[in-house]
Amino acid sequence: MVNSIIKNDKKFYSKLFAIGLPIAFQNLITSALNMIDVFMISSLGVTAVAAVGGANKLYFLLNLFLFGTSSGTGIFSAQYWGKKDVKNIKRILGICLIISVSGGALFSIAAIFFPNFIMHIFSTDREVIIEGVKYLRIIGFSYCFTAISFAYIFVLRGMNQVKIPMMITVISICINTFLNWVLIYGNLGVEPLGVKGAAIATLIARTVECSLLITSVYVLKLPIAGKVKELFDISKSFVSKYLYTVAPVMCNEIMWSLGVATYSFVYGRMGEDVMATMTLNQTIEQLFMVLFFGMSSACAVILGNEIGNNKIERAFKYSKKFIKITVITAVCISLLIIGTSGFVVSLFDDLTDVVRYNSRLCLIVFGLFVPFKSLNLILVVGVLRSGGDTRFTMLLDMGGVWLIGVPLAFISGLALKLDIQFVYACILSEEFFKMTFALKRMYSKKWLNNLV
């Protein structure tokens, strides 16, 4: 009976497209214009690319901390929305704002007051460090605005409100790109600022994004447009319940991000060309992964809504449907990446032949691992977390990075001194490990927990 409902379930697909496509489009625009940013900065040379890439590792750590906090909050937001409990969604938003802004403030202090220390972690090249310090001292002022934006975006997603954040993000990124063109190169009569110009452009864009989000929530009178008292009407028991589920997600993202930062440490010790290669590649890779980011977010919301509404069996059936869709899509994306790798890298003709050659080989390696990487994204972020199974996902992610990825990075990159494409393949091999255990957990149904 349930199978026949699922096979003919127009509601599932309409919700998938209504939530997934705007998020995927939002990520597509973000990734595409991030690639344009790298393209603009690449005209300043390999040193500038490596410097901005190294400096942005701190933002990458912040991004994952905020993703952990906000996606954990999104679990509750989706389930509370499933039972139409707006009052507690406002409280969830309040807790998320407190934690996110506090974390953003700490990262700001690190970027503004200790930029030399930060850059020395990711590079040993003096010129790279000097340029990176210039970037960090400016970009650090944007971190708290980013923290607020994350909180609102993820809570709105849990309530199936995805179009407004998408439009605001697109506006913000367009502003960022335009200001990059003006400030990096010195167009429209402005003095060319190089790397500092890129930082100023990003600071302005993130400030605008945060302001537009908050304004939209209150002007449009969205359900989470609460008074300060409503947002922070939080009891000790409510916070404990929140942290029991969200704390493992935060720990997960922090430890995973530290592992990824360790990869960057290895890349930095392998030389400026390798650092520039991976900065370029990570930007391109995000572009190819946008569809899966959208699908994982839609998966978390759809399953969370169903679980919060006590439709447990339907949630499990939907999870299997998401897996099938992901596998088919991932194989197609994998072939696309491998087939277009040479063309994509050739667009960055200001970079050295070595960087472009390395980038193409690393893209091919990435393409081979896309099916496993995308499946893990859907399983961990979309399926398992939607039911609050955050402790298992924490152990899974931490085990993959710290027991497999990091040791292999040091052995292959620093001990054996292999070429970057082989080092990258060793690092990505952790995806096999994670996929095996994540699939087993999904079919056990132990993740299906109604938290609200």
UniProtKB/TrEMBL annotation:
InterPro entries: MATE_fam, MdtK-like, YsiQ. PANTHER family: MULTIDRUG AND TOXIN EFFLUX PROTEIN MATE FAMILY, NA+ DRIVEN MULTIDRUG EFFLUX PUMP. Its main location: membrane. It is a multi-pass membrane protein. The chain crosses the membrane at residues 12-29, 36-54, 60-80, 92-115, 135-155, 167-186, 198-221, 242-266, 286-304, 325-348, 363-384, 396-416. The lineage of its organism: Bacteria, Bacillati, Bacillota, Clostridia, Lachnospirales. It is found in: Cell membrane. This is MATE family efflux transporter. The keyword Cell membrane applies. GO terms for cellular component: plasma membrane. One of its GO terms (molecular function) is xenobiotic transmembrane transporter activity. It comes from Vallitalea guaymasensis. Keywords: Cell membrane, Membrane, Transmembrane, Transmembrane helix, Transport.
